[in-house]
Amino acid sequence: xxxxxxxxxxxxxxxxxLKALIRGLMVSLVEHGRIKTTVTRAKEVRRHIERxxxxxxxxxxxxxxxVIARLASQDMGLELVKNIAPRFKDRMGGYTRVIxxxxxxxxxxxxxxxxxxxxxxxxxxxxxxxxxxxxKKDTKEVKKIESKAKKIKAINVxxxxxxxxxxxxxxxxxxxxx
Length: 178
Prior knowledge:
2 domains; CATH 3.90.1030.10
């Protein structure tokens, strides 16, 4: 069979799981601004997200409802309409880009980042200001206490197993003595 004039990639799925896959990837892209997926999936999702952003740029009630229906998540639909689409008011399409990043080790599938063109990865790499040295020290102490508690619990379990073994052996000996 030839593949000419085929508009949709099926990814070996029926229509329901295919819609769920595309919606899930769209929601992840809206939520995070960048997703890592295979190149063919990225190119397919790009078609759908571009249409959703174009609808979101209109900003009226009907297009907002259509975006929410396409994403199947009211929170992410409103996020796209209120925060993402206004960033592209002056741009006539081409809101996303696909960056190829090599092959996946397990099955050598070609991988890519799908991201919005105004995505700033440098801000994502900066450490968050909420963690201070004191907070890190507290978390280390908590981890130490948790590991000690696990060791003590393991020792108690071993002791109880030994007691159970002794009781079984005594009862077996009593049964054989009869």
